[in-house]
Design brief:
alpha/beta, Rossmann fold, 2 domains, five-stranded parallel β-sheet, two-stranded antiparallel sheet, globular, binds iron/sulfur cluster
């Protein structure tokens, strides 16, 4: 092992997998900091603060909560403008709705690479698990993200690393490959058991990281583009589409009713 303490930036989504990936690195003596990207489509925060039926749950930013439990710093980076090109012109297309997951992953890892270089970090870590998501977490799409982000073999996926070719951090001895995992598929029992062993609280998987996977939301976004005659949006648009029921009785007339008092 080299003597300098190596540094990793972890894409911390607020979900369990990225928290565990960070933890595996901390356990190997790596200096870890988290990064989280605010695209405007994020599920948390806005809706949670507005909807009355969510009041019973604590209002919190799950990425910050993960970082707090890990005892690491978190950098929240706003990418609303840059992210528009990912949403509007995805090179690899959309998933089931308007979710451009593969382009999104490449974009976020690419921004993390930029951050890594600017801050003198050594590698990037994600909580991805092979075969967990149909569009972006496949054996054939992992190299696409590594290539298009520019991260190449400085991208380590500790939860499934043993099923993938060794990356630079493993080959250089910065991390011990034997202590990484070989998880695959959609079964989350191993992660839940690990969370229990570490005593971590975590957000339940909500079916996606953002509103672009939500059929009702994407219907409203398509309707907005249709009524404007062009595919464009501003930050206010995408926030307001999260609120209320949206009906369009006539092409020139939109009716929005509040779902609750908030
Ligand atoms: S669900 Fe949303 S945030 Fe997550 S990878 Fe897909 S497009 Fe990106």
């Amino acid at each position: 092992m080299e003597d300098r303490k190596r540094k990793a930036v972890v894409l911390l989504s607020g979900g369990l997998d990225s928290m565990l990936a960070a933890r595996l690195m901390i356990d190997q003596g790596i200096h870890v900091e988290g990064i989280n990207f605010f695209t405007g489509f994020c599920v948390e925060g806005h809706t949670h603060a507005v909807r009355r039926d969510r009041r019973s749950r604590p209002v919190r930013n799950n990425a910050l909560h993960s970082a707090e439990q890990l005892g690491i710093r978190l950098h929240i980076v706003e990418v609303i403008e840059e992210y528009k090109d990912v949403v509007l012109n995805p090179r690899h297309g959309y998933g089931a709705h308007l979710n451009p997951c593969l382009d999104c992953k490449a974009f976020m890892v690419g921004r993390a690479r930029q951050w890594m270089e600017e801050h003198g970090f050594d590698f990037i870590v994600t909580g991805e698990v092979l075969g967990q998501r149909p569009m972006s977490q496949r054996r054939d799409t992992f190299p696409v993200v590594a290539r298009e982000s520019g991260a190449a073999d400085r991208l380590l996926r500790p939860l499934c690393a043993k099923l993938l070719p060794p990356t630079l951090p493993e080959r250089a001895g910065w991390v011990d490959r034997e202590r990484l995992l070989g998880l695959s598929g959609r079964n989350r029992k191993p992660q839940i058991a690990m969370a229990g062993a570490y005593g971590y609280e975590y957000a339940q998987p909500a079916g996606g990281c953002c509103f672009l996977t939500d059929p009702n939301y994407t219907k409203k976004l398509r309707d907005l583009w249709g009524s404007r005659g062009e595919r464009r949006y501003d930050f206010d648009d995408i926030m307001l589409l999260k609120i209320g029921r949206h009906l369009r009785p006539r092409p020139s007339f939109k009716l929005i009713s509040g779902r609750d008092e908030g």
